[in-house]
Design brief:
245 residues; binds zinc ion; seven-stranded mixed β-sheet; alpha/beta; 8 helices
Length: 245
């Protein structure tokens, strides 16, 4: 199972909502692209499902981790100029499923932000690389977000408590999926690569033990660029785009 070929991106987008499982997902997979969107005048909001309480690599007290990681994600978002960052409560890192509760919470965020475009994790597993992109939390958030885009956010009879609370139905027109199989929409992010690295360095609990982070990402992203026919020295991020009108 894979995605169909990407649709051409909409050219009149004013608002984007990024929905991610953990602090740092936005920055690792999509930071250069998000920075470009903000620079072009698009308003970007984040909905982060967990505070990454199972992350880290050292003896930081575990009770501190969610507090640290929320602060790290807010700082990383601010590097690009993203200031609307919502964290959901009640979800534990490593335990995510595309549950009805999660769909309702994402639908609520969609109805609040009213985005033209939603960016999220891929619900489809990449079999060639079992780690990282295919973390089960990522797959769960990708699936729950897709269900929230259709039908939950647009159907006034889905989760009637949302409408009662004043959240009007909303049709998201386009979804961008990060880190899925065979992404075919490539964004040249050479000009925002430095911002992406700066944002990733804000995630101290996740990246401070990775001195070669920039080199590693540059190598990987140069390959994405050259595979798409971009000139040598360019770096890129890749996505799948699906129309959801
Ligand atoms: Zn993650």
């Amino acid at each position: 199972m894979s995605f169909p070929p990407s649709a051409p991106p909409l050219d009149d987008v004013t608002r984007v909502l990024g929905v991610f499982a953990h602090p740092d997902d936005a920055d690792f997979g999509s930071g250069g692209t998000i920075a470009q969107w903000v620079a072009s005048g698009i308003e970007v909001s984040y909905l982060i499902v967990t505070r990454g309480d199972s992350g880290g690599f050292d003896d930081t007290p575990r009770g501190q981790m969610p507090i640290l990681r929320e602060a790290e994600q807010r700082a990383a978002a601010a590097v690009y100029g993203v200031t609307d960052v919502e964290f959901l409560d009640g979800y534990t890192d490593g335990y995510l499923t595309p549950s009805i509760d999660l769909r309702r919470d994402i639908a609520r965020a969609i109805r609040r932000v009213r985005p033209d475009r939603v960016l999220t994790n891929s619900p489809l597993r990449r079999w060639e690389r079992i780690s990282g992109p295919s973390h089960p939390d990522h797959l769960a958030v990708g699936e729950a977000t897709t269900c929230a885009v259709y039908p939950d956010a647009r159907n006034p009879f889905a989760f009637p408590e949302l409408l009662e609370a004043g959240y009007e139905p909303w049709v998201v027109r386009e979804m961008w999926f990060a880190a899925g199989p065979d992404p075919d929409h490539v964004v040249d992010v050479t000009d925002t690569f430095a911002a992406k690295i700066e944002a990733l360095r804000c995630h101290v609990t996740q990246t401070s033990h990775m001195p070669d982070l920039e080199e590693m990402l540059r190598g990987r992203m140069e390959l994405t660029a050259s595979n798409a026919g971009l000139p040598a020295g360019r770096v890129a991020e890749a996505f799948t785009i699906i129309r959801t009108e």
